[in-house]
Amino acid sequence: MFTEVLVAVVIGGLILYLVQRSRSQVLKTEDGWWGVDAPPDGEEDDAIRPFKVTTNDEELEDLYRRIDQTRPVPSLEDSQFNYGFNSNYLKEVVTYWRNDFDWRRQVNKLNQYPHFKTNIEGIDIHYLHVKPKKVPDGTTAIPLIMVHGWPGSFYEFYGLIPLLTEPSNPDDLVFEVVCPSIPGYGFSEAPHKKGFDSVCAARVFHKLMRRLGFQQFYAHGGDWGWLITTNMAQLEPKTVKGLHVNFAPPSKPGLPVLLSIMLGRRFPKLFGFTDMDIQRLFPPSEKLGVEMIKETGYMHIQATKPDTVGRGLNDSPVGLAAYILEKFSTWTDQNFRNLEDGGLTRKFSLDDLLTNVMIYWTSSCIVPSMRFYKENVSRGLYPPHTKMQVYVPTGFACFPNELMHTPKLWVKQKYRKLLTFSAMARGGHFAAMEEPQLMAEDIQNFTKIVEKKKK
């Protein structure tokens, strides 16, 4: 009897040790230098410089000349968006872009929020820093960093920012928002050396938040923003008070995930699967196999030879628009592939879509933005961060038309302190831009729960 008790105590102690050890693990990283040549002697320039988006006649004339010289390619009959961006509808979009879209007006809209740049690890980091106009007496604004993905930009958050910094409900929390551009995206300088991956971006954004005076903050992200903010939580779990994401594909599927794929359809309650989970996951050969293959060809190109196709997109505004906007069609709703216009304006305005395209065009960032895929894949299928769980309080917004559906069971395998899992009423991959009100409500709900637990 004594031996059995002793064995049980030893096993229990070992399990407790392993659990505590995993909770105390933090992601390791080292400072980098991504500027031209070797780093200069002396301290890093930590100056924060105001920045404004600008344009001029020369830039617009060059754009119009290139649009006028485009060579149309007819789409196949009855192909809709199943072969990519339909050429018939592309002609309509380009005609609007050339004749009616007012980039100068959109530049003014971009500048409605304060922009800044600061140099970190040798490259200029662009970001928005939006402070609330009014904070209720006895409270302080809650700092929140929001990180975009590809092929989006900081502009994805323009509908969301005022809902967080100037909430209409007096019971809502008031946020102070920072929206950086990932290095190589938008107006952030691209790394000049190989190897800049999501962990490097996470480290740089931690430095940015410290430079702005934040010792603790919340983080939100989707697409690459999901991975970068997750890495931020893994790097400094005591600094990130709460993590909110709307995209969380399994980074390293374990046994519970594999068993749920094999048995979840027959025993849904065993895995906590909802009707939506069953609809989006089964049959897995189609939903997780064929559908993923249909929508991830771009990823293979960008993870292997991004500079080749990127060179053509950087020269052709029409090609760039087709490449980017096709994602805003299919990733918003896969059924939009069967529509002649790709359903683009069912969820977004052409002005907003073309503004995002113009951020890529005017900054010439399409090639470095695509390189981010290669830098991350070059680390191997399972770099250290994929093997680490996250113990920061986490909230997940599950939008029904997300590119890859992630049920609660799967999210919990990675995020061990999952406080909220919200089945959203509608929305797809670009949820912050498509459904800013729903996103704001979920961020509010999650943050209120964390703040109450902190008290």
Structure description:
The two termini are 45 Å apart. Strands 1-2-3-5-4-6-7-8-9 form a 9-stranded mixed β-sheet, sandwiched between helices. Helix 12 (306-315) packs across helix 13 (317-330). The protein contains 19 helices and 9 strands. Strand 2 (115-120) and strand 3 form a beta hairpin. It is globular. By secondary structure, the protein is an alpha/beta fold. 45% of the residues lie in helices and 11% in strands.
- What is the ordering of alpha helices and beta strands? HEHHHEEEHEHEHEHHHHHHHHHEHEHH
Please report the total strand number as a whole number.
9
Question: Structural class from helices and strands?
Answer: alpha/beta
Please state the CA-atom Rg, rounded to the nearest Å.
23 Å
Helix content: 40-55%
Helix count from the secondary structure assignment: 19
> N- to C-terminal separation?
45 Å
Topology readout:
Blueprint: H1 2-24, E1 48-51, H2 57-68, H3 87-99, H4 103-110, E2 115-120, E3 123-130, E4 142-147, H5 161-165, E5 175-180, H6 198-211, E6 217-221, H7 224-235, E7 240-245, H8 255-263, H9 275-281, H10 284-295, H11 297-304, H12 306-315, H13 317-330, H14 344-347, H15 350-363, H16 366-377, E8 394-398, H17 408-414, E9 418-423, H18 431-434, H19 436-454
